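We emphasize that the prediction below concerns an isolated chain of 120 residues; any contacts that depend on oligomerization or on bound cofactors are therefore not represented. The input was used exactly as deposited, without trimming of termini.
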Amino acid sequence: MRIPTHRPPTHPGEMLEEEFMKPLGLSQSRLAELLEVPFQRINRILNKKQAVTIDTALRLSALLGTSPQFWLNLQHGWDLYQAMHSKEAHQIQKAIRPLSQVAASQPRATGTTSKSTSGR
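Result of the prediction step, given as a token string:
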């Protein structure tokens, strides 16, 4: 999956609204009714306040003829982009060194090991 670096990826709620609901003339209420989910779930997804869950992805794919992976990939891309641009990600990048740098800065073992004798 390619995550855009210059802009946030498309949120699944935006995709749902622009590519499915508007062309099909579906309101939030009607979509919620067809999916058999609470109106609030659809509203929160469209407003980027709730993630598309596996349950929702299964329902959307069944109704709209897509795959569950389509919706989950959109959500994964959105979540990863948000995480990568968070304060925490910046702190992690500062705190954690690549293993190649860690290994290069540590002294190497001399290669001698003690062998146990079993008395044979």
